Amino acid sequence: MRLILLGPPGAGKGTQAKILVERYGIVPLSTGDMLRAAVAAATPIGLKAKDIMASGGLVPDEVVIGIIADRIEQPDAARGFILDGFPRTVPQAEALDGLLKERGLKLDGVVELRVNESALLQRVEARVAQMQARGETVRIDDTPEVLSKRLAAYRAQTEPLVHYYSERRMLMTIDGMMPIDEVTREIERVLSAVVAAGGKAAGKASARRTAKPGTVGRTPAKRASKSASKSSAKPARKTVRKAAKKAAAKAKPAGKARKAAKKAGKRTGRVAAKAGAAKGRAKADRDTSGRGRKAAQGRGAGTKKAAKKPVRARGKAVRQLTKRR
Ligand code: AMP
């Protein structure tokens, strides 16, 4: 399995990466950890990165791309890896695509942890306190001032990756505000859909989520898994078709979307998982960085509000539901 964990500093990527590494027997590749090791060892890369990291900026793309290119060549990465903190810019994402392609490898998914920015400072403060209590060295960039710069860097340079991977049907957005174990459960749930890649149970769960968009999060996740188990007697394909028809009917689409809804009956669970995850972004959008409402409306995911939105927005949801097998 090859995954990317995406999310702002303090979103819990490191914590979840550790758990997923155990769960899937893959290696964690954290560019932050690698750079900190390079700084500690005073290597040429470390010397280059030191001040940039201390100020909360991003190390040049070519440096981190080089690090990752070397690292994924290592034998322990052959079984799979989870990238934490990479890519952080669109050029890095493009470079990663190239690196994987050259090696005949594929990404299995991108898990985005969405969090409320106002909680991040508290989280980082808690992390610092825990590290101090354990007698560990505290990161020099874990201060309120540097954190705000890291957040600004995330918004400006990393957040565009949400769109990048969403367009490629790779994005699975999880509400990172839930307790750690619930976040883990939710990640495992969406990943099991990916692993099954068209497996029936995953297909059903995703289809339900697709039918009730805006559902990645605490309550909706429960609702989604509940409805998934309820629907266990029905074939996945039927459920997907029903969901697509429902979405299409709601949108009162013209011929194009109706045609798309028809097609959806042939889709696999994996694509449905991705479409479901992409559509589930509306709620989480509102949780992040204050730009949420606009984003949620723009993406037309299926909150009540979005249901009243113009056909164009819901048409996108239908397209997401129906594109590609
Ligand atoms: P992290 O541990 O992921 O929060 O990263 C700590 C710092 O390392 C960041 O604030 C950046 O200065 C640097 N860094 C880590 N990963 C990258 C990356 N992919 N691109 C650029 N800089 C990075």
Layout of helices and strands, plus pairs?
Elements: E1 2-6, H1 13-24, E2 27-30, H2 31-40, H3 44-55, H4 61-71, E3 81-84, H5 90-102, E4 109-114, H6 117-133, H7 144-158, H8 160-167, E5 171-175, H9 180-196, H10 200-211, H11 218-230, H12 236-251, H13 255-263, H14 269-279, H15 281-287, H16 292-299, H17 304-307, H18 311-322
Parallel strand pairs: 1-3, 1-4, 2-3, 4-5
Task: Explain what the structure shows.
The protein contains 18 helices and five strands. Mean pLDDT is 71; it is low at 198-325. 64% of the residues lie in helices and 7% in strands. Helix 9 (180-196) runs antiparallel to helix 14 (269-279), helix 12 (236-251) packs antiparallel against helix 18 (311-322) and helix 15 packs antiparallel against helix 16. The protein is α/β, with parallel strands linked by helices and 325 residues long. Bound molecules: adenosine monophosphate. Adenosine monophosphate (AMP) binds at residues 9, 31-32, 35, 52-53, 56-59, 64, 85-86, 88, 92, 141, 150.
Derived structural class: alpha/beta
* Number of beta strands: 5
Question: What topology, given as strand order, has the largest sheet?
Answer: 2-3-1-4-5
**Rg value:** 20 Å
Terminal Cα separation, in Å? 20 Å
Count of helical stretches? 18
Oligomer, anyone?
single chain
In percent, how much strand structure appears in the residues?
Answer: 5-15%
Shape: globular
What's the average pLDDT? 71
How much helicity do the residues have? 55-70%
Instruction: Name the helix and strand elements from N-terminus to C-terminus, one letter apiece.
Output: EHEHHHEHEHHHEHHHHHHHHHH
